[in-house]
# Entry
Amino acid sequence: MASPDLFVNPPVDTDKFMTETPFLCHNVQYNVNYKWSVITNEDILFIHGESLNYPERAYPVRIFLGKCQPLEQEDPAIANKFYGVFPHMPLSASDNNTSDQYDTPRGVVMTSRNGTEYALYNFGTESIPSPGVGSRYYVTPFMVYHPSEGARGEFKGMRSIVFKNSAQHPDGSILDLGNDGKYYVFHVKDQDYPNTDYGRYYYNSNQVPVYSRPKFFHGARLLGGGQRALLFQI
# Structure
């Protein structure tokens, strides 16, 4: 169980134990081995964990930390605190009846648009395959948005893409998007979420069950195939 600093100063009306990020479902401890990948640039840090055992218990780990870029000009005092933490498990979400139905991650930013410290924001991108001919690519940002504010900005320096033919762009290669810059290609493994009944909840450190499911893109798998990848600006 990982707890960010906001555990001691959680968002308004948010239980601090609901800001934890679980690695295992249910309430039994297992010695899970992960393959870790950590990618960073000037503004952001991405942590990617693939479980190597206990797939029926272990969550795929996807944690995004770093600077966000507003779509519209903001007061510098607000814009300079537009940093976020967005884990694979939506923060402060627990509902036994609907946990499987949400398709959007949710994390926290340092300061909201109206100056509220540590505010919950949704976070997501698209999973649309790029065209299969020529050097044409469908690239989408990771948007940061609030239900009442709408879209505020994007996670800086990172994009998502779905390749129809992954062999043309292997893991670790460089993708040149011309005027949009050059990007490091990181292939994302589609790891299934724990799908047994006890995979629908985990226990936080207060020993309370939390009914939620990890969210990454719009789901664990791509309908129709293809290779998901993250693009990090270099």
In short: The mean pLDDT is 87. Residues 76-79 form the longest helix (4 residues).
